[in-house]
């Protein structure tokens, strides 16, 4: 797909600023923020009320972080943020890793259309991974004409500029880039939690697992400079953040392509030095790149949480090869043994796919064997989804639904059993929990997260949110605990 922008028709209700936009980023975006502010102000005066905007996120933590960037711009240009989709501007930040994510977007777009029919000035935007697929753009252009703005993953930093373009035309504005090597720093963000934050340390993926669409829609690996990351975290800590989650599709290959290469382990060492920061998490680690240096840094760290997400995908070496994962069942198990020996209290979680082309029930049994031997604290199990353009989609030996279902159910049962056993091991201990929110079901309780990512609910009030407090883990309820705060 080429760089493209449809700005054919200009609606003269709005008077564009006359001076020229700067070429340099992020100055250019701040120019467009100012421009959008005028548009929002005029529209708000016309309606005699503030304008509301909703950012709706589908998919992973990377998308959640991108949505905070979108919300940051929306707030900066003068929208009041809301979670209600009956707003003046709604943006869907989409995911395409599995087809059900796509279907959910199409389903909800129908609802947005009915809202827009009632409210003519309403604007609808779509962005994120799904928009990097040419077939999706075609479908939206032909069947969802009411959408006002579409952009992809590579030009999210241009959101203010695209918003301004959207206000200046009645046509659908489309701007999709095939790739980028650009990382624009220092744009506004609106964080969901005051005390914890995700931080992108890299974008894209070079691994090309044969089932996965991510390398096609997120592009090649690009690492942020360590100075920029440290600076961002220092600023967040100054604002009250105590826990950060370093985000990348494969954090273990962080820094390899920088002008001055640096390892992920070294980045962690530097982040650890930041005064006032209490907890460090990261996601996701590819087993093939997990170094001894990283294990050492985790072991010695006072701040890195006792949790590692280590996607297995399959326990069958034959299937792993077809998936292009570049490790065998035995290598994965040996890696887990090594990690467990060094850091015995580490919780390990994983992702598993069932139904990859050519998979038989005996392969699922190999996966189940790994699940039993590792004893995951949690495992996210997915049914294989055929993604157009990936090598696996072209494989002829796609697995019949009934076989997939049988394997999936068999696996899920074991995953649940083993996870319960693991989580129960903490019963009777007292551990530190970071209090995240008031419990949704019972307002007299707060919900906290242990270093190993286990959730605990206990008596408390809003004053505790953002604090790290010791909690007695009284009763294990499967995947979570009911506890009591210690004085
Ligand atoms: N089908 C099913 N699951 C997938 N994942 C990635 N691609 C697919 C696919 N085509 C899963 C992997 C990955 C997680 C984020 O999503 O398990 O680790
Ligand atoms: Fe997809 Fe594999 Fe990259 Fe993860 S490592 S994003 S599964 S290609």
TrEMBL record:
UniProt organism field: Parablautia intestinalis
Binding positions for [4Fe-4S] cluster 2 per the UniProt entry: 205, 209, 212
GO molecular function, one term: 4 iron, 4 sulfur cluster binding
Compositional bias (Basic and acidic residues): 1-11
Listed name of the protein: tRNA-2-methylthio-N(6)-dimethylallyladenosine synthase
Subunit structure: Monomer.
Domain Radical SAM core: 191-421
Cofactor: [4Fe-4S] cluster
Annotated cofactor note: Binds 2 [4Fe-4S] clusters. One cluster is coordinated with 3 cysteines and an exchangeable S-adenosyl-L-methionine.
Limits of the MTTase N-terminal domain: 51-168
Record's function text: Catalyzes the methylthiolation of N6-(dimethylallyl)adenosine (i(6)A), leading to the formation of 2-methylthio-N6-(dimethylallyl)adenosine (ms(2)i(6)A) at position 37 in tRNAs that read codons beginning with uridine.
